[in-house]
Amino acid sequence: MSERYGFSLTTFSPSGKLVQIEYALNAVNAGSPAVGIKASNGVVLATEKKSKSLLHDDRTIHKVEPICKNIGLVYSGMGPDYRLLVQKARKLAQEYMLIYEQNVPPTQLVKRVADVMQEYTQSGGVRPFGVSLLICGYDYDEDRPFLYQCDPSGSYFPWKATAIGRNFVNGKTFLEKRYSDQLALEDAVHTAILTLKESFEGQMTEDNIEIGICDKEGFRRLTPAEVKDYLAQIA
Amino acid sequence: MGDDIMSYNGGVALAMKGKECVAIACDKRYGVQNRTIATNFTKIFQYGDHCFVALCGLATDVQTVSERLKFRTNLYELREQRKLKPIVLYNMLTNLLYERRFGPYFVYALVAGLDPKTGETFVYDSDNIGAISDNVNLATVGTASDFIFGLGELFFKPNMNPDELFEATSQALLNGVDRDSASGWGAIVYVIEKDKITLRELKGRQD
């Protein structure tokens, strides 16, 4: 596809905006909410994972995905675009490992993923990704956790806590009140669940939300049983 | 010397471990087969506060590999906003060498370094296509590498202090190069400690 078009489909409007990116952000803001919170000793990612039908087998498709030992992702927006970025991020992490024999630091992976997203706003014949990513990771050199957001434009922002997707404004307001630098990972998980609950329609169960945590040991997705325990604590 | 490309220019280097210190040393000869052209061609390059690489073999490749490695390490430090660790430098170097697996650079490499916070020491060596070694006590490369290795094994003791390490390294190098016509004409020794790096020039037999 991109061989046939030598020109970019993302072009400037007279006001200086790239409307395709604005529209991509609209796609993100219509997507299901995702939350990320950085605690003193780790990061938590959480997202709503509602299925459209009771017939869906929820437990086989995941939104929270590991990229390498110390980094995980979640998104808001278009699922298929996300899948592609996950594959690219995993490959980038392994390429780094081949050259340096080190786990890629979160900052470095974010730069590389964001560069991929930027490429799709300037290359011929392609459209921007319709996702915003929340990337969490642990940097072993600096010995601290990181949380980043990557947008369709290719910009990335480091966050202490943030929400993306539907009702993200309310989510961020909620987090601004609840966030503190002394938060431990356990508390951060609770806060993340409460933040999701603000925009959640219906009953929250371990099957319709997904949580991932990243600490010094690495990144992992919580099992439904563990999610159930956290939900029971806030009920 | 004959046709052997690895002994066309000559030269030798050695790295040895001590207690919270490492030494890396090389000779200074630059020759073309049996003709000595210069006596100031050192083969040790610094890539970080406490990371050193020694490259022995074809002189043009010694220069090119050291420069290309510098290119990569400069970009690494700019991108990652941090200094190189010895193990990372070693992996970058072996990756660089393996990229030319089927048309290789004619250099054998040594990487020596120290972690300034923990005092952990690192000495690694590599062949010209990037075969990695373990973190060893002693490593040598170059035309007189076997001679220096024998002497190094003899003089090495575990947990030497910087002065003992300097003596062991210097004696192994100086006496080893005397057995090789393609190496010698002076030497330099770096002793790398947590808080300082000492460079000493050795005057050996000028032949």
TrEMBL record, chain A:
Signal peptide: none
Proteasome alpha-type subunits domain location: 5-27
UniProt GO cellular component terms: cytoplasm; nucleus; proteasome core complex, alpha-subunit complex
NCBIfam families hit by this protein: PRK03996.1
Family: Belongs to the peptidase T1A family.
Subunit annotation: The 26S proteasome consists of a 20S proteasome core and two 19S regulatory subunits.
PANTHER family referenced in this protein's UniProt entry, alphabetically: PROTEASOME SUBUNIT ALPHA/BETA (PTHR11599)
Protein name: Proteasome subunit alpha type
Organism: Rotaria sordida
TrEMBL record, chain B:
GO cellular component annotations of the record: cytoplasm; nucleus; proteasome core complex, beta-subunit complex
The keyword Cytoplasm belongs to this UniProt entry's keyword annotation: yes
Protein name: Proteasome subunit beta
BP terms from Gene Ontology: proteasome-mediated ubiquitin-dependent protein catabolic process
Lineage start: Eukaryota, Metazoa, Spiralia, Gnathifera, Rotifera
Described purpose of this protein according to its UniProt entry: Component of the proteasome, a multicatalytic proteinase complex which is characterized by its ability to cleave peptides with Arg, Phe, Tyr, Leu, and Glu adjacent to the leaving group at neutral or slightly basic pH. The proteasome has an ATP-dependent proteolytic activity.
Protein family (similarity comment): Belongs to the peptidase T1B family.
Keyword set includes Lipid biosynthesis: no
Subunit and partners: Component of the proteasome complex.
Subcellular location: Cytoplasm; Nucleus
Keywords recorded for this protein, A-Z: Cytoplasm, Nucleus, Proteasome
Organism of origin: Rotaria sordida
